[in-house]
Amino acid sequence: MKSKNMDPFFALSVIKDVMQKNIISTDTSNDEVRITTAKENLIELVKFMKEDLRLNFDMLSDLFGVDYPKSSERIEIIYNFYSTKNNFRLFVKCHSKIDETEYPSLTSVYDSANWFEREIYDMFGLKFKGHQDLKRILNPDDWEGHPLLKDYPLRKRPSVESLNYDTPGLVDI
Amino acid sequence: MLEYKDFLIDVGDFAINIGPQHPSTHGVLRIFVKLDGETVISAEPIIGYLHTGMEKFAEFRTYHQAETITDRMDYVSGAGNNLGYILTVEKLCGVKPPKKAEYVRVILAELTRISSHLVWLGTHAVDIGALTEFLYCFRERELILDIIETMTGSRMTPSFFRVGGIAMDIHHYFIDKIRDFIKIFPEKIDEYEALLTKNKIWFERTKNIGIISAEDAVSFAFTGPNLRGSGLKYDVRKNNPYSSYEDFDFDIPVGDIGDVYDRYLVRIEEMRQSLKIVSQAVENIPEGEYLSYDEYPQYVIPPKKRALTTMEGMISLFKYGMDGIKPPKGEAYVSIENPRGELGYYIVSDGSAFPYRMRVRPPSFCSISAICKMCKGYLLADLVSIIGSIDFLLGESDR
Least crowded by CB within 10 Å, which of B191, B290, B365, B377? Predict the structure, then answer.
């Protein structure tokens, strides 16, 4: 039996009370709470969520991107926050272009953001402002392209030429 | 006359590279270590040598094809990975499996947890120098894999769960084998402990080594036994029960200061608790259907017998295989307690037969990222025991 405080909807109401201006929209389908915010307000919102004693989101459990090539800000970054004290989970969404230069990094707030942001850079090519060590993490350092973008083909591999480091590119298998 | 100190050369910091191919790195982890004498100044883990693009693959597979990808990520605890994925798809579709299927899922997930912890214990002990432990652990792991093979037909990558249930009904060989295993296993755990727990060498190598505080562990998004070793009682099975875990009575062991020894004790106790869950589940398996095909015919595969004897069943099976299932548009996240920590799946569905995006929250990824923090100031030899104690798997971390 969940008490009222254990409910992510309680967290949503607290955030709505204090941070209404930072919220663009909310989505509560599938019993999960997802808040959409703008990248300019992200740090302020996250710091509030971490420090407010009613919320206390002390863990950045996951951080990943989804690519929507048809929209103008095509990368959707989803933050998965969890509060180990209050036992609820909340998702924050934030949209960005790939070549965005002002996208804030959360490495100063959560340690786990370091590698997650490197993974997003690796897979989507988004550069985080303020990240100290932004380099590829899963793919090799000299890899071409960003694999989880929807326009990156599945059935392709680096050409023989690219292994010679002369004319890098992708060919059909 | 020359003295001893005249022979010493100040070389400053010394950088060495461990791995990617090294027995103590459990796979293909590379660690770039800077040393001052024998003391670690900094250690930078470098991953990606096992990256196979599983998340990209899943976008080109139907929902039930993608299940087979999941157990190849964490190949030591395949059933657990399948469970997380299937629960997420079920949440997307709004399907509820029958109670019997949930119990079988719990049994398989807990058996794989024990077998995964046995692999961890064996290899961790070999790293530190206790070879006998490895042979003991793999002896019992074989029994567990045998049980899983009896039920699912596969030892390590079962892919046995289906949306809305399990692939086939259980039979009595499975139950009998588990009952035999439950009888012998408790004394085997005592056997493992007799070799290590009060061993002075083990004590010296693990006590007060690789300490990580609960605050740091949470900030690095540690979950599972690593986080509980630091004293924080967080277990998805208790905090957000899934798949009927609320029916079972079990304890969550927690450590004290978060050193290698604490994490060892937590995992040993977890094996006992898992066995307790398995024995409760086996004795209380409910009767009834193993697939909820009648309630949700558009999402659930028909039981084999009905597919082969009735026309509607045959058509459903054909459509399930050819078209796949099409969950409604939406997003869902489910996390489960895997042996290595909280394994989460976030699936975005666009209403088609393929997942638009499948994100796996890898517990090992987070624990490896904290190696730099945990190793600082310890000896190079301690690095090996720290790596062993956090029990990661590169297949899952690199995906």
Answer: B377
**For residue B137, with 0-12 CB atoms within 10 Å meaning exposed, 13-18 middle and 19 or more buried, which class applies?**
buried
Please say whether the structural domain A4-152 has been given the CATH code 3.40.50.720.
Answer: no
Residues forming a β-bridge with B53: none
Both tokens assigned to A90: 């909340």
- Say if residue B20 is preceded by a cis peptide, omega within 30 of 0: yes
Average confidence score pLDDT of chain B: 88
For residues A90 and A80, give the distance between their C-alpha atoms in angstroms, rounded to a whole number.
6
Q: In 3-state terms, chain A is what percent helix, strand and coil (to 5)?
A: 30, 25, 45
- What pTM value is reported for the model? 0.89
Residue to mutate among A1, A3, A33, A61, with most B CBs inside 10 A, is A61
Q: What is the mean pLDDT of residues A116-138?
A: 89
Give the mutation candidate from A138, A148, A154 for the B interface (greatest B CB count, under 10 A). A138
- What is the distance between the alpha carbons of residues B2 and B248, in angstroms, rounded to a whole number? 72
Q: What is the ipTM of this complex?
A: 0.87
Under a CB-based contact definition with an 8 Å cutoff, are residues B148 and B155 in contact?
yes
Select from 1.10.645.10, 3.30.1330.10, 1.20.1260.10, 3.60.20.10 the CATH code of B54-398. 1.10.645.10
> How far is residue B337's CA from residue B92's CA, in Å, rounded to a whole number?
20
Q: Can you point out the beta strands (E) in B159-222?
A: 161-162, 165-166
A139 has a chain B CB within 8 A of its CB: yes
User: Could you tell me if A111 lies within 8 Å of chain B, comparing CB atoms?
Assistant: yes
